[in-house]
Amino acid sequence: MSNLHPAIARVTARIVENSRQSRRAYLDLIARAADSQIDRNTASCSNLAHAYAGALDDQAALKRARGPNLALVTAYNDMLSAHQPYGAYPAQMKLYAREVGATVQVAGGTPAMCDGVTQGYDGMELSLFSRDVIALSTAVAMSHAMYDGMALLGICDKIVPGLLIGALRFGHLPAIFVPSGPMPSGIANKEKQKVRQLYAEGKASRAELLESESASYHTPGTCTFYGTANSNQMMMELMGLHMPGAAFVPPGTPLRSALTRAATHRLAAIGRDGGDYRPLAQCVDEKAIVNATVGLLATGGSTNHAIHIPAMARAAGIRIDWQDMDELSAAVPLIARVYPNGAGDVNQFQAAGGMGYVIGELLDAGLAHRDILTVASDDLAAYAREPGLAEGELAWRAVGASGDPQMLRPVADPFQPDGGMRLVSGNLGRATFKASAVTPDRWTIEAPARVFHRQEDVIAAFAEGALDRDVVVVMRFQGPRANGMPELHKLTPALGVLQDRGYRVALVTDGRMSGASGKVPAAIHVTPEAFGGGPLALLRDGDMIRLCAQTGVLETTADLSTRTPALVPADPGGTGRELFAMFRIHADGAEQGASAMLATAGL
Question: Can you provide one Gene Ontology molecular function annotated for this UniProt record (predicted)?
Answer without folding.
Answer: 4 iron, 4 sulfur cluster binding
